[in-house]
Amino acid sequence: MALIPEIPLIPLNDGNRIPQLGYGVYKIPESETPDAVLTALDAGYRHIDTAAFYDNERGVGEGIRRSGIDRDEIFVTTKVWWDRNGYDSTLRSFDESLERLGFETVDLFLIHWPAPKHDKYVDTWRALERIRAEGRARSIGVANFHIHHLERLARETESVPAVNQVELHPWLPQSDVRAYDASHGIVTEAWSPLARGRILGNEPLEALARKHGVTPAQIVIRWQLQLGNVVIPKSVTPERIRQNLDVFGFELDADDLAVIAGLETGERTGKDPDDLG
């Protein structure tokens, strides 16, 4: 049996800790999710990231139960979709997510998008504060928040998100957001860490992969870890699920990091958070 890597745990501002490398289930059909989650857990992942919008929370819960691993050993994140933003609707959405997962608590609950045109994300955050106070979510945070969204929360509410999950990859390294997060005790988490696979044919990354004897995906995930990000790559291929976790046996040097820094273009694979909703 292959050795299971020890994944670093990152401290959160509320005293909890989050595994730095997790497994994302976006766009995995519900029927395939239990087996995918089982494969990830068998490989050594202990952090699963889902959302109400992904329509596979039931599959995540089933996969975790089938694994036989103690629920307390697995860090589970879910999220409220932007069309449920608002105080009461967020509370209902959270209850529905718990029912689908089959859990009494989640480890992290996020506002999925600020949807600023609807102007409900501050009330949504207050609902998350209540959920955390009730002990039903151990930590709370946000996703896809620009700095000005975070600044508004700081002005109008009493707490700071534990996590800000944003699109982040070599084309879009989010340096300003990462700096703001770090200065305010917020952990930055990367979704679409491989730019939905589009960046992997890039020759500079191919060259780095040859240099270190790994895959381009492993290069990018290692880069994410060395930046200090939490990262949640997604795959349904068992070999790639395992490869994406096998990133602790090498380290990128300053020259490698400079090569990756040169790939920045600002290109997004998803929407700008100010435009959604």
TrEMBL record:
GO terms for molecular function: oxidoreductase activity, acting on the CH-OH group of donors, NAD or NADP as acceptor. Substrate binds at H112. The active site is at Y54 (proton donor). It comes from the Bacteria. It comes from Leifsonia poae. Gene3D superfamilies: NADP-dependent oxidoreductase domain (3.20.20.100). Belongs to the aldo/keto reductase family. SUPFAM superfamilies: NAD(P)-linked oxidoreductase. This is Oxidoreductase. InterPro entries: AKR, Aldo/ket_reductase_CS, NAD(P)_OxRdtase_dom_sf, NADP_OxRdtase_dom. The record marks K79 as: Lowers pKa of active site Tyr.
